[in-house]
């Protein structure tokens, strides 16, 4: 019971169905006070529905939503002590920025003097003082975004909800606003639930990430854990760009040490020594998951620097320099594997390269259950 | 270079000739159609200022040789219709007292209906909307008998209130259709944001929906005003004599001449009857076109 009373948001076994269609299937989540939680997943995974249910805009089919200690399943949105920033910003088009910010306080009957004080404070915080007299139509995308956040901030809620707030901005502005949101969260320290389909946003902003797929949470963990120890192949493939490589492999024993055998381009096989002992009950056929940045050009120096480097030869089929790094498509059997290299000593097209795979960072998955071994 | 320039000039000249003739044809055609609509109006306007004697002598279609306002004065206040010699003023006021409230009430109800059917959908709301739409396609005469029954039960026969009720109910289909289709274009996120902001059903309606509505409200008001003002069937069936709206009274006026027909007074009366919708179009017409063609607010 103590853990529940500590949480700012607790979701227990939450279901949502529209007729026969189950949109959410037993969601469990909690957020500590002040924590920044990201809900991430592809479109249609149910993340926006979940957020709308936390906001009270969608009804609960079964399960529990608690904000603080209070069960809010049937509490109307206005009484949940939440504020929400929408993807479309949802600024009231006929009102000025000031009226947009004060509309909620007007609705709740906050005295005029307090309203003015609150607007002043929020406008200073977001640097939108100069915009207070304008209509939303006269603002740029970034300015609208700020006003939308101002409208949420002025409420001083227990819980902030963000529904893909940056997806309508251009790439440059998106990165700027991402930084601003992070700074803002550090300053106000409010519990935040942030929905996004952008895994970079989730990684950079959130202390913990819930990866959702087909109406259920695949993994709910710290950002770094999600990245380095993904619970299953969906999470592994969704988080990270370019995506993790999945290489079918066979577990075996190479000179008394556990290893996996993978197929190589010349039709043969290569044994890669594992860094950890094989988990008990692992099937013989597994999937080896290797992130592109854990594939290096093999060298003795590398072998000394890293604890568990396995060498394997592969032909380079395509090279894509991006400036900061060079991506290369490498052939393993009939599979294409992407590697991410430093531009110095990057692979050349047509070369057959000896690769060093950092097996300490590699993951093994069960191909039938798709989960991490 | 010079030859090329000359060739281009020739081609340009030919093109501009073609342009001229196609323009000529277009404007010629438009003028013909404008004349078809305007000449009858002109004839009526002229006749309202001509002396009856002159009309009798020169015929109905002729340029005026005299100018007098007497026919207008007569039509307004002294002309005898079915034995009562008070002109059209009473009927004109009847029409105003009927049209203005009926327009306002039906427009407001349409706005509320449209708001509910687009932003507060409920189980069966689409079916309800479809049923309401049937009213758009239903000719008024189908409703004559039921209305006669209802007005009789309510004691509202031969009264302007009865006609207001009829026009409000008959108009709701249209006003609901207009407003609902307009409000569909207002993003749902606005409503959600307002709900989180603590606004309820009516506060959202008055503070967010209505301020976004002027384009569609203008369209609806013009549509309803002209439709109700010009409506004849209900007026002539459910009222008589002093209680009649102007459209019904106009017919009574043309039928009441026992001896020679006073074309001058009739013309003036017709114009008096046509003036309010004309004025509405004159002042609101551009909003009407804009409102009909404009997409919703993003």
Characterization of the model:
- The complex is a heterodimer of chains A (373) and B (298).
- With 373 residues, chain A is of the alpha+beta class.
- In chain A, 26% of the residues lie in helices and 35% in strands.
- Chain A has two domains: 2-238, Rossmann fold (3-Layer(aba) Sandwich), CATH 3.40.50; 245-365, Beta Barrel (OB fold (Dihydrolipoamide Acetyltransferase, E2P)), CATH 2.40.50.140.
- Chain A has helices spanning 2-6, 47-55, 97-107, 112-126, 141-153, 171-188, 199-205, 223-228, 233-238, 300-305, and strands at 9-18, 21-31, 36-40, 62-67, 70-71, 82-85, 159-163, 191-196, 208-213, 216-222, 245-254, 257-263, 269-273, 285-290, 295-297, 309-321, 326-332, 335-341, 352-358, 363-365.
- The longest helix of chain A has 18 residues, at 171-188.
- The mean pLDDT of chain A is 90.
- Chain B is mainly alpha-helical and 298 residues long.
- Chain B is built from 13 helices and no strands.
- The mean pLDDT of chain B is 87.
- The chains are: A alpha+beta (373), B mainly alpha (298).
- At the A-B interface, strand 6 and helix 3 of A face helix 8 and helix 9 of B.
């Amino acid at each position: 019971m103590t853990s529940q009373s500590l949480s700012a948001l607790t979701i227990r076994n939450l279901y949502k169905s529209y007729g026969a269609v189950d949109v959410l299937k037993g969601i469990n989540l909690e957020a500590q006070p002040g924590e920044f939680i990201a809900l991430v997943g592809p479109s249609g995974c149910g993340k926006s529905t979940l957020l709308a249910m936390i906001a009270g805009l969608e009804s609960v089919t079964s399960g529990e939503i608690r904000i603080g200690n209070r069960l809010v399943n049937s509490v109307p949105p206005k009484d949940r002590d939440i504020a929400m920033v929408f993807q479309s910003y949802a600024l009231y088009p006929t009102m000025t920025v000031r009226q947009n910010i004060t509309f909620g306080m007007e609705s709740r009957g906050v005295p005029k003097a307090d309203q003015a004080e609150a607007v002043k404070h929020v406008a200073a915080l977001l640097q939108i003082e100069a915009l207070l007299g304008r209509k939303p139509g006269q603002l740029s995308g970034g300015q609208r975004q700020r006003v939308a956040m101002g409208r949420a901030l002025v409420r001083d809620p227990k819980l902030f909800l963000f529904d893909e707030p940056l997806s309508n901005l251009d790439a440059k502005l998106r990165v700027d606003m991402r930084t601003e949101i992070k700074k803002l969260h550090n300053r106000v320290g409010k519990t935040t639930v942030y929905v996004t389909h952008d895994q970079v946003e989730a990684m950079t902003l959130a202390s913990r990430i819930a990866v959702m797929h087909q109406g259920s949470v695949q993994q709910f963990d710290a950002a770094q854990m999600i990245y380095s120890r993904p619970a299953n192949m969906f999470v592994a493939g969704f988080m990270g760009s370019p995506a993790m490589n999945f290489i079918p492999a066979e577990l075996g024993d190479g000179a008394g040490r556990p290893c996996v055998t993978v197929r190589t381009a010349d039709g043969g096989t290569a044994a890669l020594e594992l860094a950890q002992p094989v988990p008990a009950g692992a099937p013989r056929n597994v999937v080896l998951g290797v992130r592109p940045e854990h594939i290096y050009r093999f060298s003795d120096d590398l072998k000394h620097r890293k604890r568990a480097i396995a060498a394997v030869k592969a032909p380079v089929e395509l090279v894509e320099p991006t400036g900061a790094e060079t991506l290369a498509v490498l052939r393993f059997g009939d599979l294409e594997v992407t590697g991410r290299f430093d531009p110095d000593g990057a692979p050349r097209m047509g070369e057959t390269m000896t690769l060093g795979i950092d097996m300490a960072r590699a993951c093994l998955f069960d191909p039938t259950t798709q989960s991490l071994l | 270079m010079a030859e090329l320039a000359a060739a281009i000039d020739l081609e340009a000249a030919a093109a501009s000739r073609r342009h001229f003739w196609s323009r000529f044809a277009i404007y010629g055609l438009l003028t013909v159609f404008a004349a078809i609509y305007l000449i009858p109006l002109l004839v009526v306007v002229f006749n309202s200022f001509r002396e009856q004697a002159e009309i009798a002598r020169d015929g109905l279609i002729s340029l005026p040789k005299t100018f007098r306002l007497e026919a207008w004065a007569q039509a307004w206040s002294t002309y005898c219709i079915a034995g009562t010699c008070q002109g059209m003023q009473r009927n004109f006021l009847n029409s105003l007292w009927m049209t203005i409230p009926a327009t306002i009430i039906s427009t407001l109800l349409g706005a509320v209906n449209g708001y509910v059917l687009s932003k507060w959908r409920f189980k069966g709301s689409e079916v309800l909307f479809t049923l309401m739409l049937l009213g758009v396609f239903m000719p008024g005469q189908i409703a004559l008998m039921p209305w006669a029954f209802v007005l009789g039960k309510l004691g509202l026969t031969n009264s302007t209130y009865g006609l207001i009720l009829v026009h409000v109910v008959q108009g709701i289909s249209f006003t609901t259709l207009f407003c609902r289709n307009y409000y569909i274009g207002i993003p749902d996120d606005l409503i959600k944001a307002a709900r989180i902001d603590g606004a309820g059903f009516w506060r959202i309606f008055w503070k967010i929906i209505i301020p976004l509505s002027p384009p569609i409200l203008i369209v609806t008001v013009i549509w309803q005003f002209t439709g109700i003002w010009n409506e004849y069937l209900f007026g002539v069936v459910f009222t008589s004599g002093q209680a009649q709206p102007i459209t019904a009274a106009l017919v009574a006026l043309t039928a009441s001449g026992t001896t020679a027909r006073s074309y001058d007074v009739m013309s003036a009366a017709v114009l008096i009857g046509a003036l309010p919708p004309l004025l509405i179009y004159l002042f609101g017409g551009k909003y009407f076109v804009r409102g009909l063609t404009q997409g919703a607010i993003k």
